[in-house]
Amino acid sequence: MAGMATTAENGSTRNWTFLTNHAHVLLAIARNPTARLRDVADEVGVTERAAQAIVADLEAGGYLRRTRVGRRNEYTVNPSGHFRHPAESDRQVGDLLALFTGDSADSTP
Questions:
Q1: Does residue 1 lie within any of the structural domains?
Q2: Which of 66, 90, 96, 101 lies 20 to 30 Å from 29 when distance is taken between CA atoms?
């Protein structure tokens, strides 16, 4: 299974992935900036409430901007934002976007 780890002691599988839910939400929005949070939540595998909290975190951190367009939201990802962890703080989010979406310059429609 991709992204899964098997423990050597008993052969059981523990669920874990290399990317956090925050990264998955950011990538889902970068791929579809007009997606409903319900659809983002389904894609990522979290509740809609969790997706809302993650989007709020990403907005507060300057990684995402939300614009109201009619009755929907449209999101803009800031590719020049830096990773928060000290080990990767010299890298920009655009590097991750380029790796997984093929586009780091801009994620607007």
A1: no
A2: 90
